[in-house]
Amino acid sequence: MATLALKEADAVEILTVVDNISDMLLTSSDRVKRFTLGSPPGRRELQAEHGFSALVTVLANGVSRSLLFDTGLSRGGLAHNLDVLQVKPNELRAIVLSHGHIDHTNGLSGLVRRLGRRRMPLLLHPDARLMRKLVLPDGHELPLPPPDSRVLRHEGIELIEQRAPSMLLDDTALISGQIERTTDFERGFPIHWARMGRRWQPDPFIHDDQALALNVKGKGLVVLTGCGHAGVINTIRHVRALCGVKRIHAVIGGFHLSGPLFEPAIEPTVAALKEVRPAVVVPAHCTGWKATHAIAATMPDAFVQNSVGSRFRF
Question: What pLDDT sits at residue 230?
């Protein structure tokens, strides 16, 4: 695997715009600034939902640049939270989709209205445009429609489909592309199907799952996942190999360890994550209660609770 020259950032901020949890009683620390209750008076409150979105801001050589990683589930939730957080969408350099599931893409429809006719780059893996579904054990099916490419193009979005890794924000943000699967315990999503051509086929590995990595000067890599369908350990191994940086400073995002299909992977995942020794671990979205508590118990000094409106500064 060829090594990519990921430039160091002087500082990085990751702002949770959409997540499953909103807790305005959490307190700030030197690692995270919280969105707290009643400050300032009269401020609208943030909305939580089963989805994920994060604003990534990189400071390098005196210049600040931002992108949006995923867009949440509801059509209005992302736009609402951006307004409350006073984020101006027209200042974004790009949008990245971690994969094509609706809890990471559906907020696009509410966002494009705020962008006007600007040509906004949207980076995604080609498989993110597949029609998908979950086939439940009782036979019921849950459709997972992809974002509508025609509508997005009509609204001025420039779709950039890429299987390979790529760089954004003047080579300070690495998008992993399709992640290599190397562990024996991160086995995908067995009830997941995709329509390929005219046929529905098993699609357990969700190859469009990708992550974002940033290299913070003097600290190491900050890795951001959406759902982490590739497995958070596979993801860490992959981005390390891509950029040649071994030190992992922080891991943030969904680790998809919720529910009986994935709970057998909690113990080996947490054990492997402990070996990585990140200074900060922020499980979010689909990580699940059991996995989150296992991480908190095993890595108490690194664990930080996520919540909508949390700003992590590195």
Answer: 98
